[in-house]
Amino acid sequence: MSLLELVNPVYTQIENKSVMYNNTTIKGIEDQITVGSFALGSVNRQIHYGFNTNVVLSVSSTSANDAEGAPQGAKAILVSGLFCDTSDNNRYKPREATFPLLGAVAQTTPISGTNSFAVINSIEVITVGTSQTNQGVINVIANGTTDLYGCIQIGHSKSNTLSFGTGYSQSHLLKEIHLSSSCHTASVLELYEQNLNTGLKTLISKIQLNSNSTHIEQQINHKIPKTGAYVIFGILSNLEPVLSGDTNHICCNITSLVA
Question: What is the tally of structural domains in the chain?
Answer without folding.
Answer: 2
